[in-house]
Design goal:
Elements (H helix, E strand, L loop, with lengths): L5 E5 L6 H15 L6 E5 L5 H8 L4 E5 L16 H6 L4 E4 L27 H14 L2 E6 L3 H5 L3 H13 L11 E4 L13 H19 L1 H5 L2 E5 L7 H5 L6 E4 L6 H14 L4
Parallel strand pairs: 1-2, 1-8, 2-3, 3-4, 4-5, 5-6, 6-7, 7-8
1,3-dihydroxyacetonephosphate (13P) binds next to strand 8.
Length: 273
């Protein structure tokens, strides 16, 4: 079964609602109805209603950047699955390395114990993935090793542990709602992209794990994205890789021209554009 590639923008901490609306309108004009590819954007929470309105009736989906596992209650600052759904979301990023407090090069603003404000771990990532699925959202579960882990030869161990923990308790009939994203921490925001072959190898490893959890047939239908310094230049090579089913794009998803080129690369790389 051919997997439809998925290119999703992670806007991180960027854009006010007005700016987000303008970018969404621009992307809609460029990408609505693009054949053979699925496109999504994940704006900051406060921008979601404006972006959802701008993209209403288009083929571009909206996602959140995080979710809390309780639906409501005394959890100041959190946002739940039903809230995201009613604001217009179809997807939600879960366990992004930045939410796990794993940064390639943390700046001085995160020095010392300030990093602890980003506290996701494998247990919370799993709760969030399950909460997303129960709310009817598609979780984009992020996994990936740091530079130290890679240099210590631990890439496979780390990725396997994150995939297995993230998926614990996900029922087989929910499998196709799940998207995985391999995002090596050292490649995020650094301009240092993972080699095409290496990205393919680790995405392939993720798929083998999915096959162990849900069987090979289901695993063939699940999208495994690559993320980390994806841009218009390196996207064609990455998107041609057989195990890479699209991209989770940070910085370049804020620039409509570049994001459009990355989406085109995904279409062409899979012979769909
Ligand atoms: P960059 O594309 O800016 O490296 O960010 C990748 C990312 O973290 C997407 O979630």
């Amino acid at each position: 079964m051919a997997r439809i590639p998925f290119v999703c923008g992670n806007w991180k901490l960027n854009k006010t609602p007005d700016e987000a609306c303008a970018l969404a309108q621009d992307l809609r004009a460029r990408l609505d109805g693009a054949p053979g590819v699925e496109v999504g954007v994940c704006p900051p929470f406060v921008c979601i209603p404006a972006v959802a309105e701008a993209l209403k009736g288009s083929t571009v989906s909206v996602g959140g950047q995080d979710i809390f596992w309780m639906e409501k209650g005394a959890y100041t600052g959190e946002v739940s699955g039903p809230m995201l759904v009613s604001a217009g979301c179809r997807y939600v990023i879960v366990g992004h390395s930045e939410r796990r407090g794993r940064f390639a090069k943390p700046g001085p603003e995160l020095a010392g114990d300030l990093m602890a404000v980003f506290g996701d771990n494998d247990t919370t990532v799993n709760r969030k993935a399950l909460a997303a699925l129960s709310a009817g959202l598609r979780p984009i579960i992020c996994v990936g090793e740091t530079l130290e882990e890679r240099q210590a030869g631990r890439t496979e161990v780390v990725v396997e542990a994150q995939v297995r923990a993230g998926l614990a308790g996900v029922r087989p009939e929910q499998a196709e709602e799940v998207v995985l994203a391999y995002e090596p921490v050292w490649a995020i925001g650094t301009g240092e992209k993972c080699d095409d072959e290496e990205a393919n190898r680790v995405c392939g490893l993720v798929r083998r794990l999915l096959a162990q959890v849900w069987g090979p047939e289901k695993a063939q239908g699940i999208r495994v994205l690559y993320g980390g310094s994806v841009d218009a230049q390196n996207a064609p090579g990455l998107m041609r890789q057989s195990e890479v089913d699209g991209g989770l794009v940070g910085g370049k998803s804020l620039i409509a021209d570049d994001f459009e080129k990355i989406v085109k690369a995904a279409q062409q790389g899979k012979g769909m554009g």
